[in-house]
């Protein structure tokens, strides 16, 4: 060994755990596109109960509003569940970009149709179209997996729930503040057209945002699917040179080969989380809107939209400031268990708020309890970032689209059941006076216990890819 070799051997080895720099432009484009799904799905929540009432579907009985509002809300996820796996698997073969562009422009069109709808069945068809064309939610998670590795994934995935909640906040704000513009902005929208289509303006605003994100993807997004990027790289090689090993095993795996324990337990927890989350998101606007006499708070759409928008902004800020730090301090499993435990407090607090409002009206105590309730939901939302890390690590690189599509299909089924179940249980509890109108909260408290127990089955450490 010569002097130079010996000196080199004595030098300290460089650290191998330095995070890989994130591709900022690609990441920014996909995060902007991610806004479209929550904006489109959540923008109707502030006014959908009022819309059902105005269409006189319930025959003037406010206790039955939950049945029809829940159906409209759930159809988005029913139709999404029918197609999201096909969209995601297609992205493994033809690339992420074509699927993203189709989904974004299709969602913009469907939101315009929703705003122009004036009968129950046209609302149903418009909402179904939104779900059928919205295959992007699984594809976007696949893109995030393509753009990151184990060293920087926590940093990148922390932004997904943030962007989702910012999109939801935009949807809630748009739906609450732009609904019925002839009433809220009479000097600008006083014509008969806006009286005939009182919910077109929020739908147009939502459609415009989604359309803009589609243009951004079309112009600036570069393909990330492994099958396309490796094939494009291989096109520049000598035609007579043998293909690299990575290309030989490039093809996406059949679905039956993806049913491993890491994938199954990750998807199961994702389903439980999504079910509780969407059930709460559907239940809260109904709870806020219904008369105090039947267990609600009797708030108008503008206040409901503002409360839900502030909640989403608070969730986003909490994610930005604390998610990565909490993951490093406690690990993904503990964050997941702690976040799921919050649903126990959430459903208990809704019942307490309802009882307090009936006895004393909308006092400062009620608003303080509402603030506590929303704080619990802020903590619970951390679960999404944690479970995305488990799910992404469990997926083979060449089958990320399939795994995310499978997970998103099952999650969409859960999200289809959640709104209809929660709002219908609310109406049933009020109609039949089950547990003095609080049976819906007891049912979801029990479901939350099961979800916490399921989260304890996750491993202490995220799997190696």
From TrEMBL:
Subcellular location: Membrane
GO molecular function annotations of the record: transmembrane transporter activity
Keywords for the protein's UniProt record, in alphabetical order: Membrane, Transmembrane, Transmembrane helix, Transport
InterPro entries associated with the record: MFS, MFS_dom, MFS_trans_sf, Tet-R_TetA/multi-R_MdtG-like
Gene3D superfamilies for the chain: MFS general substrate transporter like domains
Keyword RNA-binding: no
Organism superkingdom: Eukaryota
One GO location term (cellular component): membrane
Residue intervals of the Major facilitator superfamily (MFS) profile domain: 26-463
Protein topology in the membrane: Multi-pass membrane protein
TM helices/strands, residue ranges: 65-87, 99-117, 156-179, 199-221, 282-299, 306-324, 336-357, 364-390, 440-460
UniProt feature coiled coil, ranges: none
Protein name from the UniProt record: Major facilitator superfamily domain-containing protein
Natural source organism: Mycena albidolilacea
